[in-house]
Amino acid sequence: MATIWRWPEHFQHDFAARMDWRVADEYSKANHNPIAVLNGDRTKQVLRLPAKPGVTVTLSAEGTHDPDGHDVEVRWWIYPEASSLRDAKGRQFPDEVALSTERGLKTSLVAPPVRKPETIHVVLEVRDTANPPFWSDRRAIIEVQP
To answer: Which of 4, 90, 129, 143 sits in a 20 to 30 Å window from 30, CA-based?
Structure first.
């Protein structure tokens, strides 16, 4: 079961930022979360992407940036607890579903064969290089149809 304990550093730093924002008399005197752009979408919405088995689904973080001018680090990961996909033995998430890379502005995966509609949740995690660092996340739900 997924819990918030996957992200303790994220929410602690976010709380610290909110305290800084309360006392800063200028925008530039506090750090702000990076802007995570997913497949050209600059909102904070979850993207739903349809896919058929065997099709390569490409995800892009092009346009991602930090409003304070800090460098950003981009990481991709599959969120198995949120995904519906199970292997033939009912185990959560088969090993053959993997991202092409976990770092960088682009990644991809090949949609697996499915017997019924399934979902694969992929998280784009963007971290700035400030001290303390801040994160922004976006989620893509890949909806694999048989």
So the answer is: 4
